[in-house]
From TrEMBL:
Organism from which the protein derives: Cohnella candidum
Pfam families from the UniProt entry: HTH_18, Response_reg
Domain HTH araC/xylS-type: 164-262
Superkingdom of the source species: Bacteria
Record-linked InterPro entries: CheY-like_superfamily, Homeodomain-like_sf, HTH_AraC, HTH_AraC-typ_CS, Sig_transdc_resp-reg_receiver, Tscrpt_reg_AraC-type_HTH
Modified residues (4-aspartylphosphate): 73
Single GO term (MF): DNA-binding transcription factor activity
Designated name of the protein: Response regulator
Keywords associated with the record: DNA-binding, Phosphoprotein, Transcription, Transcription regulation
Chain spans, region Disordered: 254-276
PROSITE patterns: HTH_ARAC_FAMILY_1, HTH_ARAC_FAMILY_2, RESPONSE_REGULATORY
Length: 276
């Protein structure tokens, strides 16, 4: 279902600056048209307005366009307003649904409120009442959006604080026998959660980061000290010099005993070969 042609010329110019979409769903054309034209929708923050003649048509449009606001009759052919409400709430729980109800349908309206409808409006529809209810719904949508932004910012701040803690922990303790488990205990997280945060924020796992720090320190020691490979292996946290040598070669392309010579050779300097 497309945006109605009679509303297109009126509102299409403003769609780019509006963020909310509205679906009007009623099987009576006069009611649909009345609601469509009774309110200056852009003035309250609605940029796109679509109409549907029954619940099935409305649901089809809602699935494709995900409206933030839906105004629907309760009694309709094919798919009634309560079933449409249930489907929308399951698929798009943030959407605000306003029910149109007759004087004899209060029981249905109350059932709808319990089913998470935002509110209901009596027919025949009073434009002022409709504006009031829609404005409240949009204000709640805006407030929810702000809370989501704040929660996202708080989550980001927490992730940054966590990363700082882990970086400091590794920098201070990489010479020791630290593991993902010991690091997770330091920040009171599960190992899975910690690795997930590290992967998201740093693009690496804990073990990969720890290995990087240790190998970088080993490279520094090989270039600036006269320590043996065996001594450097222990100094950067590896108790098995053979494993350290294999890992170092994998990470750098050089054996530890030849690293300083390779680096200085590439730079045109003469150097020494480190003892194993």
């Amino acid at each position: 279902m497309a945006l109605r042609s009679d509303s297109r010329s009126r509102w299409r110019r403003k769609e780019s600056s509006m963020s909310y979409k509205l679906l009007i769903c009623d099987d009576e054309r006069m009611i649909r048209e009345g609601i469509l034209h009774a309110v200056d929708w852009p003035s309250i923050g609605i940029g796109t307005v679509a109409t549907a003649k029954d619940g099935e048509e409305g649901w089809s449009w809602a699935r494709e366009h995900r409206p933030e606001l839906v105004i629907t009759d309760i009694r309709m052919p094919k798919l009634d307003g309560l079933e449409l409400l249930n489907r929308i709430m399951l698929a798009f729980p943030y959407t605000k649904v306003i029910l149109l109800t007759g004087h004899g349908e209060f029981e249905y309206a109350q059932q709808a409120i319990r089913g998470r409808a935002f509110d209901y409006v009596l027919k025949p529809t009073n434009p002022e009442a409709l504006i009031t209810v829609c404005t409240f719904a949009l204000e709640e949508l805006s407030a929810n959006a702000k809370r989501t932004v704040l929660a996202t910012e708080e989550e980001k701040d927490e992730s940054e604080r966590l990363i700082q803690q882990i970086v400091r922990y590794v920098q201070e303790h990489f010479k020791e026998q630290i593991t993902l488990e010991t690091a997770a205990k330091q920040v009171h997280l599960s190992t899975v959660h910690l690795n997930r945060v590290l992967k998201k924020e740093m693009g690496t796992t804990f073990l990969e980061y720890l290995t990087h720090v240790r190998i970088e320190e080993a490279k520094r020691l090989l270039l600036s000290t006269r320590l043996t490979v065996h001594e450097i292996s222990f100094d950067v946290g590896y108790r098995d010099p053979k494993y350290f040598s294999q890992l170092f070669r994998k990470m750098t392309g050089s054996k530890p005993s030849e690293y300083a010579e390779d680096v200085r050779g590439n730079s045109g300097e003469s150097g020494r070969k480190v003892s194993p």
